[in-house]
Each structure stands twice: as structure tokens, then as C-alpha cells.
Amino acid sequence: MKIVSTIEEVRAQVRAWKTEGNTIGFVPTMGYLHEGHLSLIDAAGENDHVVVSIFVNPMQFGPNEDLASYPRDLERDAALCKKHNVDLIFHPTPEEMYGESFYSYVDMDVLTKELCGLSRPVHFRGVCTVVAKLFNIVLPDKAYFGQKDAQQLAIIKRMVKDLNMPLTVTGCPIVREKDGLAKSSRNTYLSPEERKAALVLSRSVFLGKAMAEQGETNAEKIKEAMTAEIKSEPLARIDYVKIVDLKTMQQVKTIQGGVLAAIAVYIGKTRLIDNFMTDENEGK
Ligand code: PAF
Q: Ligand 1 mean position to 29 CA, how many Å?
């Protein structure tokens, strides 16, 4: 496994693989890898070679967000990547990615204006821009994203479609702790008391999912039950609880077809997200 930090080194390796006719699977990450990331890396193993990028992208953080405190541990990440048969880690500096000045952005309408886009107005512009850049650098045949960030996944799929990017985007299922909490690098911010309180997210998601599975089609009723569950936890503060069309991120009144029930909740200062989809195949 190679670890490189320059775009030129990635390009040289990718050129060599492509000349041999090999396929490339790509997993973009911000590092501090957990089992969720590892499930994406394992899925990417269906390609001849696997590339993982580890880059805490400043452009997708708002001014008062956790860019400085975001957990980083390259040595630990490299050991995990090696164990999961990654061929190349791309670990650039912000200067390598954005140079001294940077003027070009990938922006998206509609899908980015809802859910996380409301409380994180610059987030998805930063995500789309860095992912487009990474796709241009790595030239993957397939890229893998987690369904936990369901809005991000829908946005990346839309960007690839709208901009005719020559790759396939695959969504992989949420990986959870044994007690239900969705795996996230941000779980490390939680105190023991907050860690317990954070279980309210998965409880709310499992409740909504059970209602939908039992045939409840009224989105408002499901939303109300999920909201009440979250409000029962004193340490939780709701950012949003929404039920939206999986492709457009617009709110729906009735559960039918591919629907996403998504929540964002602050536990203390830590903002966590979770969701369920009525048809997980639609989110793949
Ligand atoms: O999901 C993430 O970790 C990031 O948003 C991504 C896709 C690596 C872009 O920085």
C-alpha cells in the first residue's frame, strides 16, 4: 500500500493502472476511519484497485463548525486501510488541493437547500467541489458513499448525472454500534453521558421505520412520533426531523416509493445525523 500526498503521484499511479486495463474503486473520506468507512472500502474491493482519500476538507466546514477539532490519525487510518487491502491512500494538504488561491466551485440547486443544507449553508458546495476534484484526480470507475449521509449521497449521484461524470456511485448501508448508534467519526466528541443520550437518534429512526413497515403512510404521523421520541431525551436538541423524496429532498405527505426519513440532532455541542429509507435499494 502506498501513501501519497501529491496530485501528481496519484495521477502517475492511476495512469499505470489504467494502461494495464485495471478498474479503480474509490472511497473519499475525511479520515478517522470506523467500520462504516471500512464497509465502503470492502465494497470497493470489487474493483482491481482501491484508492482511499483522507482529507479534512476545509471548504465544507462553516465558520463556527468543528474543522480544527475534527479527529485526525493518519497512522491508525493507514493500518486499517492496509488490513482492508487498500492500494493507495491519497492524503493531500489543503495547499495541494486548493493552491494559494481558488475560484471555481461546484454548486447545486434544490437538493442542497434542504435538511443539512439549511443549518450548514456552505457545506454541500464544499462537498461537491472537493468530490468533483477528487474524481478528476483519481478517475475512478466506481465511488462508494455511506447511506448515513443520505443527502450527500443523493447530491453526489445528481452531480455525477448532471455533469456527465464517467463513473458509478454506489451507496452502502449504515453501519451501527451494537446498541444502535450509527457509526460516525463525530461520536468521539461525546462524553459518556452524551453517548447514552445519543441513542435517542437510533431509537427515533427505528420507531419511524417500524411504523412505516407496519403500513403507516401518513408522513406527518411518523414525523410526530419520531420528534416526540427525541424530545424525551433532555440532552437532545432537534435540528430537523423530515420525511422527503429520496431524489429531490422535498418533503412528502405520503409514504410511497423511495422516501427518506432523516434527522439531525444536537447532543450537547455534537450534531449527529441518522435516517431510514423506506426502500434501501433506491438509496444504493
Ligand atoms: O462524507 C465525508 O466524509 C465527506 O463529506 C467527503 C465525501 C469525504 C468529502 O469531503
A: 5
